[in-house]
Amino acid sequence: MNLTGDFHTHTKYSKNNHGKNTIAQMVNAAKNKGLKSYGISDHGPGHLLFGIRRKNILKAKQELEQLKNTTDMNLYFSIEANLVGKDGKIDLKEDEIKLLDHLFVGFHRGAINNFVNPFRKIFNSEKQKQINTQAYINLLNRYNVAVITHLNTYIKVDLEKVLKVAAEKGTLIEINNKHMNFEDSDAPVLIASGCKFILSSDAHKKENIANVANALDFVKRNKIPLDRIVNLDKIYK
Ligand SMILES: [Zn+2]
Ligand SMILES: [Zn+2]
């Protein structure tokens, strides 16, 4: 069972030394790990500490484009945009979204949003959970989201409701090796949802590319059907 592609990784464009390596270093490491496909997805510009600078989005894309001549791997350009609005809005403008091969979206505490108040301890209250759930549903209805990253990590949602819409839209649900965002008790809901899944290292340095051991353990332990995972033993598309 081989990982064919790792699409959620961070480079130096995730600012303040959050991502440790250049795009070229990351691509080279991905090649050495034997991946057929590799993608970068730096934090969206709305992340105050680690977000890519808006002016660097095109620059990063061009840098990756140039490396396509040097490798036979399939290279993909993405941004891990931030969910910032109750209405489902993200921190990318339409013309920035157009630069991406596919859109990844996650919730991060480092981006300003209008639906979770970090100063009140309501992060995971039932009322807040319903608000979070609606924000994700609005997100899925508003944009063509390829992957929801580490769902349920920083804020909780009603999984069944979000996954129902994700399945309808064909949005992939990430099993994130770094965050391990699901509990074993979530597995029946994941399986019943009909969603497809993607395993990601969420590597912030080259050594961690393709490291999905924890995510794969979760999959095996909970008997998630392997044909529902898009980046095992087949070309990503
Ligand atoms: Zn993230
Ligand atoms: Zn990430």
Ends: how far apart? 18 Å
Strand content: 5-15%
Bound molecule types:
zinc ion
Structural class: alpha/beta
**Spatial strand arrangement across the major sheet:** 1-2-3-4-5-6-7
CATH architectural category: Alpha-Beta Barrel
Please give the largest β-sheet. 7 strands, parallel
Total strands = 7
Proportion of residues in helical segments: 25-40%
Q: Compute the gyration radius: what is it?
A: 17 Å
Counted by DSSP, the helix tally is 7
Description:
The protein has one domain (5-228): Alpha-Beta Barrel (TIM Barrel), CATH 3.20.20. Helix content is 30%, strand content 14%. The protein is built from seven helices and seven strands; from the N terminus they run βαβαβαβαβαβαβα. It has a seven-stranded parallel β-sheet with strand order 1-2-3-4-5-6-7. Helix 4 packs parallel to helix 5 (159-169). The mean pLDDT is 94. Bound molecules: zinc ion (ZN) (2 copies). One zinc ion is lined by residues 80, 106, 108, 149-150.
